Structures are given as structure tokens and as C-alpha cells.
Amino acid sequence: MGARFHLEHANIVAYVTSRSYGAPRVRERDLSEFLDALRYNASQWLIPERGFEPWSEQIAEIASNARSRLSQLRESDDREVLAPSTVERVLEELRSKFSGYPLFALAVGNGEHLWEAAHDLARAPMYGQLLVLIPEQSTMRRNFEVLDPIPAFSAALHAVADWPGIAFWTATGASAFAPLRDIEDLRYQLEVASHEGLHRGLFPHFSSTMAFDAVLRRWSESRPSRSRRLLHLSDLHFGTTDATENQSLLDAELRDIVKSVDRVVITGDLFNAPKDNYAALFKSFQHNITHLSGGREPISITGNHDQRMIGLFGDDYKQVALIGSTKVIIDDACRMIFICFNSSVRGSFARGKITKSQFRQIGAEYRTYTAARPELKDYLPIVLVHHHPFSFDVAPETWVQRALSKIGLRDESFLEMVDAQDLHHWCMDWKVRTILHGHKHKARYVERGGERTTLTSIGCGSSLGAEGSPVSYNLLEWDPVGQRWVAAFFESINGGAFREIIASVSPENVNRA
Predict the structure, then answer these.
(1) Terminal Cα-to-Cα distance of the chain (whole angstroms)
(2) What is the pLDDT of residue 74?
(3) Where are the alpha helices (DSSP H) in 267-409?
(4) I need a surface site. Which of 105, 291, 446, 511 has the fewest CB within 10 A?
């Protein structure tokens, strides 16, 4: 069997097809559109397997009931983003209907060959054990962002370097991705598992699921990704109580992650004030990362707290000098060039500013390297800076933000990067299209287009939970062929398990010259 839908609804579909995961947050507009498509055009969106023709009529009726339930709940909750509890209540009956299959498949990417492969799979003789999910084909012209991605759909997003293809998963959570060229191979292995499961014991459904699990795990383990991976940390604020209490949790989380990435970058506010004992705590953390990375030291830049008392007053560059002052770092292993700015040399309070002198120095250094090594034109240049290059507001959460809000002031006016457009222009001049930053303790993915190119700005939250914020890190994957990013933002709240709260995929070819 199969089901068609819009790509914006893929995470909803991944949720209703599995009992293994909790409900995600969902934008109300997306959930309404998804339910309306099923109740008004079920025969268009659902592809029955032979012998299951009434299936679309049953789904349409259930979707209509769910839409009515959503309208009732909206009378008391008019938020744009629906809470997981609301999503669970609305989709409970629909989820019960969809999640009865042992195996699911999701087509991702574009192309006529993928479309044909997905429809052939939907009509494959799998004896009602397979549900194929087929998003409508469209070209992404902006970044595609998913809230609380269901792990099975997340696996498809993180396989962007191998798109187009089909992601497979089971109700128990096992998953694998097959690029278009390998779909027939994996399909054959799954059909064999399906046949064996139906003829094994008294519980064929359970046997099939276990057989599918084994096939998908073997497949996934045997096919490493070709993406280049970065671990992005920021705003550690060593020397604070939050950093002390949260470090053991972060250290434990990073033991496996650091070994799986090509490089670690840390975008400033390494410690809470320029004090020797605070800096020593960071150096110990840095050495641990270097050890886990097999000797590859994390690339660290400084923030306002590393140079100003409580991040606001004075200028003390002693610790900055000890951290290092390298402006351009070439990583031949992952074919990336990291361009490091100090946005805290100038700026009052917690504001930042990059001086014209710094632009000239780094521009000269960058050009010297690229002139001496012509092959660097094929490397990916990335700017690292502490302050956010595009201004934004957040809901008042800290005591400072709440105090400023009460007297009608925006905290952004005390935190912004002054003359940020100078950095935008510098990046466009040198064809640098990616900026990684920290500072505001909020994970954020932004794309802004100019006359000549598009800038991608990716911000990380506080990796040691400064000011009571979640403990945060970003995993960034770069597809060198498709020239696109997958940014995944992870958070732990109150010592809970880290969860992927947002996954964002950049538009196709957005970074091409």
C-alpha cells in the first residue's frame, strides 16, 4: 500500500506510522492541511494494495473525525505550534490505523525514476506488511525545517548526501536509507524477510518485524555517509554553577559523538570572565575533546565573556592570547577552511563589532593561502564568529530579559553585532556562504539572500546550559556534491536525554557559485 502527501507533512506521517515515538510539536497549519488532504481527497493520496480497496474510505472518515477534534481543541489553544499532547490527542485514531504495518518506506528527493520506484514498491506483493509514503515532488527554495523530527524521518534527512532514495523503518525503530541505485537490492532483501516471517511460528506479524529489523540494521551499518560532519558547541561559560553542574552530562554525551565527526568548533564565551581559574577549566575540557578526536584540537574562538568582566565591562586579552590567535585554519582532512573572527574586540555592554582592521588582516591571510594553494578553491570556507550576524528577538526568559521587557526595552539592543552588514559584505566578496555563531544561547538556522549569493547562518545554544537554558549542541552535515547543509539541534532539559529538537535542510544547490 502507499500514501502520498506534501513534504511539509512528512514528520506527521512518520509519527502516525509508528508506536515507538512520542508526538512531536507540529505547526497548526501543517496538521490542518494534512488532515484536509486525507478527508477530501483520500482516493488521490492513498494507493491501496490489491484486495484492500476500501482502505482510502476508512482513512477519510478517520481524518474527518480528527479534523473536528482539532477544531475543538483550537478553541482553547490558539498557538501556532501545537504541543505534543495536543498532536497526540488529534491523531490517536489515525495513528492506530496506520501503525499496524510492520514496515514503512518514505521516498525523499526528486526525479521521475524515484517516483516510479516508490509506486512500484507501493504495489509490491508484501501481503499488507508494507506502507509506502510518497511526498509530492517539489524543489525546496528555502530551508526545510522540522520540529522534533521522528527518528525514522530524521534518518532520511541526514542522508541528504545520498538523495534521491527511500528510507525504510519498522514500528520498533530500526531504519535504513537506500539511494535510488540500491533500492532494488534492499527491496529484494526485505521481500525475502517478509516471506520468511509469514511462514515462521504462530506470530507472523512479530516474526516479520524482527526479520525486517535485522535487514535494516545490517544495511545501515554497511553504508557510511559521505557527508562531512561538524560538532558545533558554544557558550560554555566555565566558572558558573550551571557549567559545573552540567559538564558531566555533556562530557558523557560527547564521548561517542566526537569520534563520529570530522572536526569540533566552539564559537565563543568559553568561560564566564577572563580569570585564570575559569580559563583552566576550559583548557581541561579542550584537552579532553582533543583526546577523543584522536589529537585534533577543537577550533575555538572567543566571545565577550572571554574578554570582558561578566561579559560587559573592560577588556582583558590575556586569556585570548593563551587560547591562540590563528585567524585562518585549513583542515585538509575534511576539506574545509575555518575563518575565525573576534567580534568582541569592539562593542559596548554585550554588543560586538568587527573592526575594519580585522577584516583587512583576515582578508589578506585568506588570500595568501588561496593564492599559494590553488586546490583550496574546492574547499568549503566557513566563518566562525561569536555574535549573531542577523538580529533576532527571543521571548524573555532570563531575569535580565524580563527586567528589560518590563521597561519596554529589547535585550537585542544590548547584544547585537554592530554594523553586521560589514560581515555580510565581506563574506559575499570572498564567496564565503556559511557563518557559525553563538552568543544568544538559542539554536537558530537562517538563510538570507543578497544580490549575489545566499548566506547561511547557524547558531548554537549554550552547550553547558548557561542561565538555566537547555544543554545544547549542533551536529552539522555538509554534502559536498549537492552543496547543502543538514543542521540538527540537540537539547537536554533538566538532565534529561538529549533530543533532536530541530532539523533543517538547506535548499538544493544554495551554496553553489
Answers:
(1) 42
(2) 82
(3) 276-292, 318-323, 356-372, 399-406
(4) 291
